[in-house]
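Sequence, please.
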C-alpha cells in the first residue's frame, strides 16, 4: 500500500556548497539508564560510521552513548511517599471572597511545532509501503511528518519468522508480525508528536526511555486483547508480536542558521541513512544482529536479530544524537529495500540514479518502488525527508556525487558482473553441449556394448 507524498512547493535551487555537519557516536552501555560519559572530536572532521567500513560524512563529532534499557526498574515507594503534592492551579478563595481572574496568571497557550507549515522550497518528502502479498504485508505504513522546525521519519518491519503465530482478528487471521508493526507504529507516532522536541531539551536517553515504556505497555495490552491461550511450543526464536523499528526525529536549532539536531531511535535491523551532497550515503544506525559485521558482510550472511521489540521479551531502544547541517536527506528503510542488492554502494546508486531521472518527488518514489519490487523478495517500506532544498535543488546538489558514485564504485562492479555473467552463459552452453554430445556418443557406442543383452535373458543351468 502506498502512502501519498506531501506536496512540495517550488523554489530556487539551493546552494551547491553544503555546510559541514557534526554527529554523535554511541559508547558502551553503562547500565540500565545510560548517560553521556565523554566527548570525542574527529581529527579529520568526519562523521563516525555506524559500521566499520562505511564512508564517513563531513563534520566534527560529539558523542552520546547508546541507551540500553532491558526492563523498567521497580518503583521506589520511599521516593513516591516523599514526592510533593501538586498545588491546585485555581485555589478556593479565602474568607468567602469572590474569585477573581487575573489574565497575567494564566499559562501561555502552547502551540505544537508540528502544526507550523514548512517553508516553500525547503523540503522533499515521500514514503511507500510495498507488500509482497497484497493485504498481508508485515511492514507497517511508514511515519512521515514534517513542519517548519521539526521532522519525523520511521519504519517498522514485523518479523515474520519469529512472529509467525496467527491470531484471529475482526479483519481475519493476522500474524503476530503484522499486528506488532502496526501497533508499535501507532503508539510511536502518537508519543513522538507529544515528546519531541522537548522544551527543556532532555537528553535523548529520556525520550528513548519514555518511548520504550509506551511501546512495552501497548504491546502487552495488545497481546492480552487477542485473548490467546499460552503456547505449548517453546523456542528462543519465537516471540509474541515482534517487530523492528528505525526512527529519526530532526529539530532545527533556532540559534544557528542551517543547523539541525537529529535523534535516532531504533531496535532491530531496519535502518536510518543520511544522504549528503559531498559525502554521499552513510548508515546511521547499527544493526542489532548476533553476528556483527560490516554492511557488505551483512548482505552475504543471514544473521539472527539480537534485539527486537516484542511483547514477551526484554528489548532495548537504542539512541544516538547527531548535529547536521542543511542540505541533507534522511532515509528510513526496512531490509526489503536494501537487503537484496549486491552491495551498499548499489543502494546509494538506487537512490541517486532514480532521483536524477525523476521529475518530482512522486516520480522519484514511483521509480524507487518499481526498482525495489523487481529485485526484493520481502515486504519493503521507506520514508524520505529532505531538508534545505526542493526536488530540483537536490538533483543539482547531488549530480556530482551521482557521477562519482557511478564511475568509482558502481561501474567497476557492473563490468565485473557482466564478465561473470558472460562466462556463466558460456559455461552453461558448454554444459548443454557436453550433455548433448555425451548422449550422441553413447547412442553410437551402445549397440555393441549391449549386443549380448539384446539377445534375451541369459540361460540358467539346473541345480
Amino acid at each position: 500500500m502506498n502512502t501519498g507524498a506531501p506536496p512540495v512547493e517550488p523554489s530556487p535551487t539551493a546552494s551547491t556548497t553544503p555546510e559541514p555537519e557534526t554527529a554523535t557516536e554511541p559508547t558502551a552501555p553503562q547500565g540500565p539508564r545510560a548517560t553521556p560519559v565523554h566527548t570525542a572530536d574527529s581529527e579529520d572532521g568526519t562523521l563516525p560510521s555506524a559500521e566499520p567500513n562505511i564512508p564517513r560524512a563531513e563534520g566534527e563529532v560529539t558523542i552520546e552513548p547508546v541507551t540500553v534499557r532491558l526492563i523498567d526498574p521497580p518503583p521506589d515507594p520511599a521516593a513516591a511517599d516523599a514526592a510533593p503534592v501538586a498545588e491546585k492551579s485555581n485555589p478556593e478563595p479565602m474568607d468567602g471572597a469572590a474569585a477573581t481572574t487575573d489574565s497575567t496568571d494564566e499559562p501561555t497557550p502552547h502551540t505544537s511545532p508540528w502544526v507550523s507549515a514548512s517553508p516553500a522550497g525547503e523540503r522533499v518528502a515521500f514514503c511507500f509501503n510495498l507488500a509482497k502479498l497484497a493485504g498481508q504485508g508485515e511492514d507497517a505504513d511508514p511515519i512521515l511528518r514534517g513542519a517548519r522546525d521539526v521532522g519525523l521519519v520511521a519504519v517498522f518491519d514485523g518479523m515474520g519468522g519469529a512472529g509467525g503465530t496467527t491470531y484471529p482478528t475482526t479483519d481475519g487471521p493476522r500474524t503476530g508480525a503484522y499486528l506488532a508493526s502496526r501497533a508499535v507504529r501507532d503508539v510511536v507516532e502518537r508519543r513522538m508528536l507529544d515528546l519531541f522536541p522537548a522544551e527543556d531539551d532532555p537528553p535523548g536517553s529520556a525520550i528513548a526511555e519514555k518511548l520504550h515504556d509506551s511501546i512495552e505497555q501497548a504491546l502487552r495490552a495488545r497481546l492480552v486483547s487477542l485473548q490467546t491461550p499460552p503456547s505449548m511450543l517453546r523456542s528462543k526464536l519465537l516471540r509474541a508480536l515482534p517487530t523492528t523499528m528505525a526512527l529519526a526525529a530532526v529539530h532545527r536549532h533556532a540559534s544557528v542558521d542551517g543547523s539541525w539536531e537529529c535523534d535516532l531511535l531504533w531496535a532491530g535491523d531496519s535502518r536510518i541513512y543520511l544522504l549528503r551532497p559531498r559525502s554521499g550515503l552513510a548508515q546511521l544506525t547499527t544493526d542489532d544482529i548476533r553476528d556483527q559485521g560490516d554492511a557488505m558482510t551483512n548482505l552475504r550472511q543471514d544473521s539472527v536479530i539480537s534485539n527486537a521489540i516484542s511483547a514477551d521479551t526484554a528489548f532495548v531502544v537504542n539512541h544516538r544524537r547527531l548535529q547536521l547541517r542543511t542540505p541533507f536527506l534522511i532515509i528510513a528503510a526496512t531490509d526489503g529495500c536494501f537487503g537484496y542488492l549486491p552491495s551498499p554502494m548499489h543502494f546509494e546508486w538506487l537512490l541517486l540514479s532514480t532521483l536524477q531521472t525523476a521529475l518530482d518527488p512522486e516520480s522519484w518514489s514511483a521509480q524507487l518502488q518499481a526498482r525495489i519490487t523487481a529485485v526484493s523478495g520481502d515486504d519493503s517500506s521507506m520514508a524520505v525527508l529532505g531538508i534545505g532544498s526542493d526536488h530540483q535543488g537536490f538533483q543539482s546538489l547531488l549530480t556530482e556525487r551521482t557521477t562519482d558514485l557511478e564511475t568509482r564504485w558502481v561501474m567497476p562492479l557492473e563490468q565485473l558482473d557482466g564478465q561473470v555473467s558472460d562466462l556463466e552463459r558460456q559455461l552453461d552452453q558448454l554444459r548443454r553441449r557436453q550433455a548433448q554430445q555425451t548422449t550422441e556418443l553413447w547412442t553410437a557406442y551402445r549397440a555393441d556394448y549391449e549386443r549380448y543383452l539384446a539377445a534375451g535373458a541369459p540361460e540358467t543351468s539346473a541345480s
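Residues 21-71+114-344+379-393 form a domain with the Phosphatase 2c; domain 1 fold (CATH 3.60.40.10).
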